[in-house]
Amino acid sequence: MKAIKKIKSIEELKQCINREIQHRKSEKKTFLTVSAGTCGQARGSLKVIEALEQEINKEGLGDKVKIRATGCHGFCEAEPNIIIHPKNIFYKNIIPEDAKEIISETILNKKIIERLLFSDPDTG
User: Fold this and answer.
1) What is the pLDDT of residues 79-111, one digit of tens each?
2) 30 pairs with which residues across the strands?
3) Closest CA to 50 of 30, 64, 32
4) Burial class for 109, CB neighbours closer than 10 Å (0-12, 13-18, 19+)
5) This prediction's pTM
6) Strand boundaries in the chain, DSSP class E
7) Do 31 and 67 touch, CB atoms closer than 8 A?
């Protein structure tokens, strides 16, 4: 088991964050981080996770694409939402029916699904 080192300064925290960022950039797998906190679950995130898992399995991507259910991403009005790592693509208001398109278009074909992106109401 790896020893846990206590962070003692802001500089050490920054170093830890930078190491994690570099580690995530080097990942060979794709991770779909799905918001599954209370607000996400109330808006259907568990059904979205189930639909994504089905599509991943159907496409035979189980060794290349993983799902991480997390707590709230802090954007409750956009729940359920996902962040696709390592590309850092943020999709909002996902419904189970979006799973097939997310896997086929974004994961397999490397295309952004414009209708699922957040658009700032002030700037567009």
Assistant:
1) 999 999 888 899 999 999 999 999 999 999 999
2) 65
3) 32
4) exposed
5) 0.78
6) 30-35, 65-70, 82-85, 89-91
7) yes
